[in-house]
Amino acid sequence: MKITDDSSSYSQLAVQGPRGLETLQKLTKTDLATIKNYWFRWGEVAGVPNVLIARSGYTGEDGFEIYLPGDGPTTEKVWNALMEAGREFGIRPCGLGARNTLRLEAGMPLYGHEITDSVNVFEGGLERWLKLEKGEFIGRDALLAVQAAGGPKRKLVGLEMVERGIARDGYPVLSLDGEEIGAITSGSPAPFLKTNIAYALLPVAVAASGADVLVQVRANRVRAKQVATPFYKRVKK
């Protein structure tokens, strides 16, 4: 078997939101409605052949990610076609900052934040994707050891700020007595929810208690409450 990295030969555009299917369908003969979530199909988009069309994204909304072969002008051509196709639906361009806010509202973990080489799947709440019974894999013994030791010592929880302040990545989390007990993994204003939200890794006992905590925001200690996640869940029609 030979594996080649062709990343530099492709570019990606993501069409996300409730009108994403209608927008992209104008530019392709591929029946987008028949593509299941997190499945893909090859097709032609805006006259560009050999495009991988995936019903996926990292925003919590329905939509598609398209992987375009070729050079910059090819990507620009499809970008312009998408903007024109989505004009009647109020399409707007956005970047990774907006994507990051949306994925946080939707409770989607991000590598380097909620997923790192020091956070195990039990701590991150990712057990539903863990199949220990399927045999050997890298890290299985370490996960079994966590279970044998009584389970994880930390847990990822959702926070909503109840006082003025934004919890940013890496900010310390303290108990109401001022003891440092954890850290923010991701934090941001949530424009749709009209509040400031964050994920934090906290001791299991604190997470289970649902107790309020303090977030060290520069020189200030700002109170936050634990809330259920995902913070926002799309209503499926």
Classify the helix fraction into a percent range. Answer: 10-25%
Tally of separate helices: 5
Largest sheet: 6 strands, antiparallel, barrel
Content of β-strand: 25-35%
Mean pLDDT: 95
Structural class determined from secondary elements? alpha+beta
Task: Give me the secondary-structure topology.
Layout: E1 10-16, H1 20-25, E2 40-45, E3 48-54, E4 63-69, H2 72-85, H3 96-105, H4 140-148, E5 154-161, E6 172-174, E7 180-190, E8 195-203, H5 204-209, E9 213-217, E10 220-227
Antiparallel strand pairs: 1-4, 2-3, 3-4, 5-8, 5-10, 6-7, 6-9, 7-8, 9-10
Can you walk through the features of this model?
The protein has 237 residues and is α+β, with helices and mostly antiparallel strands. Helices cover 19% and strands 30% of the residues. A six-stranded antiparallel β-barrel has the order 5-8-7-6-9-10. A four-stranded antiparallel β-sheet has the order 1-4-3-2. Strand 2 (40-45) and strand 3 form a beta hairpin.
List keywords for this structure.
237 residues, alpha+beta, four-stranded antiparallel beta sheet, 5 helices, 19% helix
Outline of the structure:
Helix content is 19%, strand content 30%. It is of the alpha+beta class and 237 residues long. It has a six-stranded antiparallel beta barrel with strand order 5-8-7-6-9-10. A four-stranded antiparallel sheet has the order 1-4-3-2.
